[in-house]
Structures are given as structure tokens and as C-alpha cells.
Specification:
14 strands; four-stranded antiparallel β-sheet; alpha/beta; 34% helix
Length: 483
């Protein structure tokens, strides 16, 4: 069980979606992994946002400990200026760094919060990086030189190109969706080619690749594929898009099959996903709403969190003794907001920082975290991703009711024979493994009295330039993900 391990990320996938595609015969390879292995609904963090969920999956720690609360964060408690989060905001060791510390080799492609890359003996191409910086963001520094021998290699195939995704997500003609599909297929196939090419230098004990096309499907306003959405608008036009996306999922399923074949029958395979988050409605400007009422509070650009400005040492802001009363008043007024079309609540739920982010880094979190409903009924798929395990020593045909996002890292590390750091709050799901597995290693945990795990410091590296941050922000604003 301590042989090679493959992690396949299917960003935004849900069992509602995958089960329907398997039943239609669109994704037989994924169906085989589920039927011959273990599956479980993967309970995400609160609130169900992609960035803190991925951070929790990769660290085994909750947001209040790893310090990632949203795609963006305030630079300090004294400023309203926000920036995109990166690996330096993750205060815990990740699967990659913990495996590296144990002497294992790692290849991780297209995972978030991997830039800048810590100084480690791994092969890393991070997600959420514009293509002009992808060469410098990858690790080791000569990685792209190795890839340039690939026929037709173009770094733009691997990088974040939000402007293309905007056109597909906003609807439009079938040709626009075909363009998005063609690019996504090319992008996914490139990741498989890159992984195979890098394996020529010697296989790594832990290989991981994230396919992010499903998340883009789920993010579309029309909810084109998810049966749980139940939207029958647009008739034949929408059915045409469904056919296009089914073709994409057939190709994606073939890539999953090729990945598993390339790793061999002795590899342990994990398939994981983080559910897609729902953006705030474009028609509602949260910061404008707060300013109109003269409230000492401001929302982060994603509108997922609100910071209350409390007076410190005579600085402008709310008196500290009025904080809790003001926060309760603000919560009630926000919950009373109604969608102008459906008259349904705009917000599904609101959490205080104590409810959502208890932990040593709670003070950095927003005072309130918001789950937007946008006048639509709540969906269980918003709070659960997928977890699938398959391979030697893994039980066959088993289903767990659910498991936590925090359990993925320790379970995966256990499959590699790596000791679990005491700081990890998730637990190894031992019940997914056969009780009598030849060569099975006993579960190892680092001593609680040993020195806590400290990730290798990230070297000085180029951060996103102002114009690049502005470009990404503009595109995300077009999608409705930031205000």
C-alpha cells in the first residue's frame, strides 16, 4: 500500500453529475473506479468556497488553522486593500511538502495554492497563474525547458485564460461553447502529455493532476448539465450545449482511463473534487449597500466576506463595546435581502468568524462569511465534493456515507506510508482499506511533542504584477465572482 499513488482532481464534480453521466454510458472509466473501489460524499468546509476547501483538502486542517478564507484576503487588519491568496498564505504543510519531507518525490500539476513553490524536490506547475508568468512560477526553474521538446507545446494551453472562460460562461451561440470545449479538451490532454513526459525522468511516488473543466461547466449561469438544477429554459439551444458538454465528458473519461493505465495496476488512485461555489448576483453591489447605510464595514471583492471596522487606539471605526450588537443587526438586515425577481432570500446563510473559522488564525478572517443563494433553492451539491479510492488494498464496491475534506490529506499520506503530522486535524479513513493487506504499513503519527511541521520557506519569487492582478480581477468581475 506504500507504492505509487495517483491523485486525480475533478474540480467542481458532484456525484449527482457523475452518476448521471455514468448511467448514460458517458463516463465508464470513472464508473469502474467507483464500482470497484470506495466512494464517499466529501463534505466541504464552511462556507463552501473553493480556495479554503482546496487548502483544507491539501493540508488536512480547517481554515482557522491554515489561514485561507477566500480567493482573496485583506493584506492586514488595518487596510481595505486585498490581494489574491497564494502558497505563502497557507500556514500548514501540504500533501506535497509533507511527502517531500519524508523523502518522496512529487509531481503536482494544476493545483491551486502552489505558487510560489517551496524549495522542494518536486515537479510543480501551479494553477491560478497567467501564462506570461507560468514559466517562472513552475518548479524546478528549468521545468519548462524540459517541456519545450513536446510537439506543439504552448504554455498558454496550461495557464489561466479567464477571458475565454468568460465568453463560454456568459452564454451566447453554440460556437462560443464549442470554442470553450475545444480549448478545455486541449488543456486537459496537455496535462496528461506533460505528466507522461516528466515521468521519463523517473516516476514519482506521488503524482497528481487537476482537471478543471467541470468547475467551468458548473459555474455557468444556465447550469447546463447538472440534473439537480432542473432548469428547462432555452429549449433546443440548451440541449445543443448539453450534447457539446457530453462530448467533453467522454474525452475526460478517456483521459482518466489513460492516467490510471500509465500508473499501472499496483498504484492507488484517489479521485477528489471541491464543489463549485455560487457567486454573488451581479445585480447586487454589497459594498455600495454598506456605504449607503453608513456602516463601518466593507466587503471583500468576492462579496463572500464582510470585515467590520473596529476602532483601535482611537482610529476611526465602531467602538469595541458595540461590535456584537452591530454584527447581529447587520446579519438580520442581510438575511432580509430579497431577490427582485423570485422574492426569495438573496443569502442562504451567514456565519460569524467564530462559527466558520475557529482556530489560531481566526483574527485574520472576515467577521461575517456569506453563502449566496441568489434567489435559488439550496442544493446539497454545494456542500459536497466527491471522494473515490481504488487500488491494491482498497475495499471493493464500498460506499461511505460521507467523509470530511480534512480527511483526504491524512488518508492519502497513509497510503504512501508517510507519518501523519500531529498538527493535522483530519483523520485517516482506515475503513476504506482491506483489514488484511499484504505489505500494509501500520498508521504512523508524528509525536505530539516533536517539533511541529514547518513548510520549507518559499524562495523570493515573482508575484503577480499589478496589471496581471487587474486583468484577472476584471475577468472575474465579468463572471460575477467579484464586485
Amino acid at each position: 500500500m506504500s507504492g505509487r499513488t495517483l491523485v486525480i482532481g475533478l474540480d467542481g464534480a458532484t456525484f449527482t453529475l457523475l452518476d448521471s453521466l455514468v448511467a448514460e454510458g458517458v463516463m465508464p472509466s470513472v464508473g469502474r473506479l467507483m464500482s470497484e473501489g470506495v466512494r464517499a460524499h466529501l463534505r466541504t468546509v464552511t462556507p463552501a468556497l473553493a480556495a479554503p476547501a482546496w487548502a483544507s483538502l491539501l493540508t488536512g486542517c480547517p481554515p482557522g488553522r491554515h489561514g485561507v478564507f477566500d480567493r482573496v484576503r485583506a493584506e492586514s487588519l488595518e487596510t481595505r486593500h486585498c490581494r489574491f491568496v497564494d502558497s505563502r498564505d497557507v500556514a500548514c504543510g501540504t500533501i506535497w511538502t509533507i511527502a517531500h519531507q519524508d523523502g518522496l518525490r512529487v509531481t503536482a500539476l494544476n493545483f491551486p495554492l502552489a505558487f510560489p513553490t517551496p524549495d522542494m524536490s518536486g515537479l510543480i506547475i501551479p494553477a491560478w497563474v497567467p501564462w506570461p508568468q507560468l514559466r517562472d512560477a513552475s518548479h524546478p526553474p528549468d521545468l519548462f525547458e524540459r517541456l519545450e521538446s513536446l510537439p506543439g507545446f504552448n504554455p498558454r494551453d496550461l495557464a489561466t485564460e479567464v477571458e475565454i472562460d468568460v465568453r463560454g460562461a456568459q452564454g451566447g451561440a453554440l460556437a462560443e461553447h464549442e470554442l470553450l470545449i475545444e480549448r478545455q479538451i486541449r488543456r486537459d490532454e496537455r496535462w496528461l502529455e506533460v505528466l507522461g513526459h516528466l515521468a521519463g525522468d523517473g516516476p514519482t511516488e506521488l503524482s497528481a493532476v487537476l482537471f478543471d473543466g467541470i468547475g467551468k461547466v458548473q459555474d455557468q449561469r444556465g447550469r447546463l448539465l447538472d440534473p439537480a438544477a432542473g432548469d428547462s429554459r432555452e429549449g433546443h439551444r440548451k440541449e445543443g450545449r448539453r450534447d457539446i458538454w457530453r462530448a467533453y465528458f467522454r474525452r475526460l473519461d478517456r483521459l482518466v482511463a489513460r492516467l490510471c493505465e500509465s500508473m499501472g495496476e499496483k498504484a492507488t488512485v484517489f479521485v477528489v473534487s471541491v464543489p463549485g461555489s455560487r457567486p454573488a448576483g451581479k445585480a447586487f453591489a454589497l459594498n455600495s449597500w454598506l456605504e449607503e447605510r453608513g456602516y463601518p464595514a466593507w466587503a471583500v471583492p468576492t462579496s463572500n466576506g464582510i470585515h467590520v471596522v473596529v476602532s483601535r487606539s482611537g482610529s476611526p471605526g465602531l467602538p469595541a463595546d458595540q461590535y456584537h450588537a452591530f454584527r447581529e443587526k447587520l446579519i438580520q438586515e442581510l438575511l432580509d435581502l430579497r431577490d427582485p425577481v423570485s422574492s426569495q432570500p438573496q443569502l442562504a446563510r451567514i456565519w460569524t468568524r467564530e462559527e466558520a473559522f475557529a482556530g489560531p488564525l481566526m483574527a485574520l478572517a472576515p467577521d461575517l462569511s456569506l453563502e449566496w443563494g441568489n434567489g435559488e433553492p439550496p442544493s446539497a451539491d454545494r456542500s459536497h465534493g466527491v471522494f473515490i479510492a481504488h487500488g491494491p488494498g482498497v475495499r471493493r464496491g464500498a460506499t461511505l456515507l460521507q467523509t470530511s475534506m480534512l480527511d483526504v490529506a491524512p488518508t492519502l499520506l497513509h497510503s504512501l506510508g508517510v507519518a501523519i503530522p500531529a498538527e493535522i486535524e483530519g483523520r485517516v479513513r482506515e475503513e476504506i482499506f482491506e483489514p488484511e493487506t499484504p505489505g500494509k504499513r501500520p498508521m504512523q503519527t508524528s509525536r505530539a511533542d516533536s517539533s511541529p511541521f514547518v513548510p520549507a520557506p518559499a524562495p523570493p519569487a515573482p508575484v503577480l504584477r499589478v496589471e496581471e492582478e487587474r486583468m484577472i480581477a476584471d475577468r472575474l468581475r465579468e463572471l460575477g465572482y467579484i464586485e
